[in-house]
Amino acid sequence: MNIFDPNIIERGASPRSRESLQMAAKYIIGALGASIGIAYISDVLIADKKIFGGTTPHTVAEKEWWEATDKKFQAWPRTAGPPVVMNPISRQNFIVKSAES
After folding, report:
1. What distance in Å separates the CA atoms of residue 77 and residue 65, rounded to the nearest whole number?
2. Whole-prediction pTM value?
3. pLDDT by residue (tens digit) across 34-68?
4. Percentages of the chain per state (helix, strand, coil), in multiples of 5
5. Cα 60–chain centre separation
6. Residue 50 belongs to what domain range?
């Protein structure tokens, strides 16, 4: 039985069962929204507000550190094959071509 079918009453289902299905859908959607809200608030309190203490490491907070680390990773020599980017997801390409070719 499809709760979104507008012809549910014509197929022999009582109007009462249709109302109960709509009520069930309302509670399920409400509970899903509430659980997402609780998860978001918990994430903000724990990760951003640091209610259990702690600090954000400077390696995560400082852009200069990230750029220096990325530069170091890109400078590592490759011995097995053509040079590849160490973090291909951020580059959106997988093989680095030299400027000479």
Report:
1. 21
2. 0.48
3. 999 999 999 999 988 999 988 888 888 888 988 88
4. 55, 0, 45
5. 18
6. 1-54
